Amino acid sequence: MQRLRPNDLLGEVRAHAQDFTGDLPLDDLVRALSTRRIALLGEASHGTHEFYAIRARLTRELVERHGCRAVVIEGDWPDAWQVNRWVRGLADGPAHEALSGFQRFPTWMWRNTVMVDFIEWLRDFNRGRPPWEQAGVYGMDLYSLFGSVRAVLEYLDKADPEAARRARLRYGCFDHFQQNLQAYGYAAGFGTGFSCEDAVVAQLTDMLRAAPSPGDEADPDALFHAQQNARLVRNAEQYYRSMYRGRASSWNLRDLHMADTLQALSAHLQERTGQPPRMAVWAHNSHLGDARATGMADQGEWNVGELMRKRWPDEVFLLGFTTYDGTVRAASEWDEPAAVKDVVPGLSGSWEALFHEVGHARFLLLAQEGDGLRQALDQPLLERAIGVIYLPETERRSHYFTARIGAQFDAVIHVDRTRALQALEDGAGQCVSGEVPETYPEGM
User: Fold this and answer.
1) Tens of pLDDT, residues 45-63
2) Residue 439: which pLDDT band, with cuts at 50, 70 and 90?
3) Tens-digit pLDDT profile for residues 172-231
């Protein structure tokens, strides 16, 4: 289509912007989200309070009013499973202890005040409801290889000791590298002839063939939890082998795992409840916006948003977020403590700079049938992405890519000035049992 002149594009945005300086226009947005089974709720950074708070608010509405029963986050499966058990009343203690599984850098992504408030609310919502009416919290990332190994073994020790013995022998393959996954990835990825691929595939095959054990009656999700952890080990092994082959290969494997996890979880919950479940997914814009509408496609990369639109074309809604300036919680280097950093004002020629010119502190752009907004936003402008690392001194090179935001998302929320997410504690976190930090190496 013909590209609009800057003033014409600004006029289109102003004409359609729904100002919510006071409060979020929930009715229109929640109604749009509820027309699709899966709400993909993005963020332009991993350290911005408003993005987390608005997602939490929207998810509460979807859970209370529209039957959403799964909140899936850009975190690892076993860490999120600890939260899942807590919100469903299967574990005791305070909310911050339920989040204690998130030990690796960047801890603030999920160990923050917004998450505490949200999971406390979710636990209250679930109280007194039968299991099939409760809403759970699940992780879809793949960094917790050794945490998932432990979870598989813990399940098998109770369900089938002989199968547990076989699993220990297979997973012992990683012991050659003292559980150092970066060393393993380097050795396996460069064709040394050593690989744990066959071992983890064999273990996954066994787990997928397993039948529920008598002990599973107390927790009907126990076998699925173990199977998903075995799937994560298989996919994580493949991911670490690919890390030294280039960004596109490892990025695509990671997002494919996320999409496959959503599909497996959907099938499991449908088997439990008898109907396709509604789900809310929390992750970075770079994962949830359609990669085909961004510069990622030129690099041969796909993402969750693109895969979900292809797999479930009429069932997903993609919501993105942007900000012009303010503060953000981020680190300068991997495994360093986070700091509150000033966000550089959006660059000229970016969506952030254009939205700043609209003049609203906060607004929603929600395309309606036939209103022309989606077509107007189908222009290639710069878009900012801040991950767990923020480098203002190299802003253009490090944090911008080209995007046609009207095709990338179904709706966009712009918060002109944002503030940093409040962590439960500051610090870098730690690499647990040789595992690499979450979001490594992309930062998203």
Assistant:
1) 999 999 999 999 999 999 9
2) low
3) 988 877 667 777 777 776 666 678 999 999 999 999 999 988 877 777 799 999 999 999
Q: What is the spatial distance between Cα 397 and Cα 89, in angstroms, rounded to a whole number?
A: 46
Domains of the chain: 6-139+248-418 (3.40.1660.10)
